[in-house]
Design brief:
Elements: H1 11-31, H2 33-44, H3 48-76, H4 78-96, H5 102-120, H6 122-132, H7 137-145, H8 147-166, H9 168-186, H10 208-213, H11 219-223, H12 228-232, H13 235-264, H14 269-297, H15 299-319, H16 326-339, H17 344-347, H18 349-355, H19 360-389, H20 393-413, H21 422-425
Helix pairs in contact: 1-5, 1-6, 1-7, 1-8, 1-9, 2-3, 2-13, 3-4, 3-5, 3-6, 3-19, 4-5, 4-9, 5-6, 6-7, 7-14, 8-9, 8-14, 13-14, 13-15, 13-19, 13-20, 14-15, 14-16, 15-16, 15-20, 19-20
Amino acid sequence: MRGSIRLPFFYGWLLVGIGFVTMAVGVNARTAFSLLFPPILDEFGWDRGVTAGIFSFGFLVSAVVTPYVGRMMDRRGPMRVVELGVVAMAAGLLLAALARAKWQLYLTLGGLVGSGINCLAYTGQSLYLTRWFVRRRGLALSIAFSGVGLGSVTLLPWLQSVIDQAGWRTACGWLGILVLALLGPLNLLLKRQPEDIGQAPDGLPGPIAAARAANIVDSAWAAVDWTLGRALRTARFWWLALGYFCGLFSWYAVQVHQTKYLIEVGFAPGEAAWALGLVSLVAVPGQIAFGHLSDRIGREWVWMIGNLGFVACCLALVALYQGPSAWLLYAMIVTQGTFGYSLTSVMGAIPAEIFEGRHVGSIFGTVMLAAILGGAAGPWLAGVVHDLTASYSSAFWASAASSTVSVVAIWIAAPRRVRVVAGRAQRQPAR
């Protein structure tokens, strides 16, 4: 075993902790666009679709770089990729504070932040943490990703107070400093895979190959050396791509526009910002619970639960059009956060279990290209629909339909027929 090091603990759990902090700051630095959106509109007076397009442009840039992120992760390892993301995101936030024109905000808050988040958040974390865990893959990812909730309840209210007192430009500057000063040093500790330090996946004793092969159902499929080219020629890949596109379409259509929408239906700006933070806070127990549950019952079930959460969230948002309602607001928060955000706990596990191998980074990065395109299309289309109809209702209905399609697509992709989760492994005969 190369680089064998004796450690009193499984290093993978340290990486989960680093991922937790990275997600807490990094993801909320991008989510903060929902708070920056109203003051940017007020200052420049641009159309809503054009302004929301800043966020969508970031997704398009991210879509271009995503396959390369996977490739870099395969070749260079996680530390360099994540640190690149930290630098790009910090630069985007710091330079946004100086912006005076549309193209400057598209480049900074859009391009630099969008490409940076791709390296350090869901895509980047999923690409290497899935190498460290097999039996507890869902639990490990869900704990790391639940950092978003802690970050939201601390970072977003603080950021809103900075916006209220000093303006959105000052808020961008402080956020950029935080990303660089905290996440830069922390992610120097990242390692590619447990084999590099003489450990096995999940920290279990025994042969590494046996640990990785224990949950195989379709031996013929698992024996293929899956390259990106081979994966692209399978129906499974395209069902995955459709499922991820539709799931992220709904997620970000709701997330980007919900703060402005809540203000328009009668909630105070502080209440709307509080709701955005609370969504991620209530996601913490949901993500961990559903991530652990996915290790017992399967990834498809949790993907379905998450998407149905977004369907219910969209229905609550449509109902709120009649005016402020505390119980509808809480319903929106719980269905979006506790249930909807559980998607993240299986987002990395599903492609890894279908196409596990030397090139899984490139394959996963390309699947995430579809997800990012969905994430870009959702906010843009919701903004355009509002500009045309003066209402978000049609956009929320479209988001609910998109989530339903996502459920169907992942059931057809059927990761359970390639590798089963630990809770079902002993009940499935190899074939």
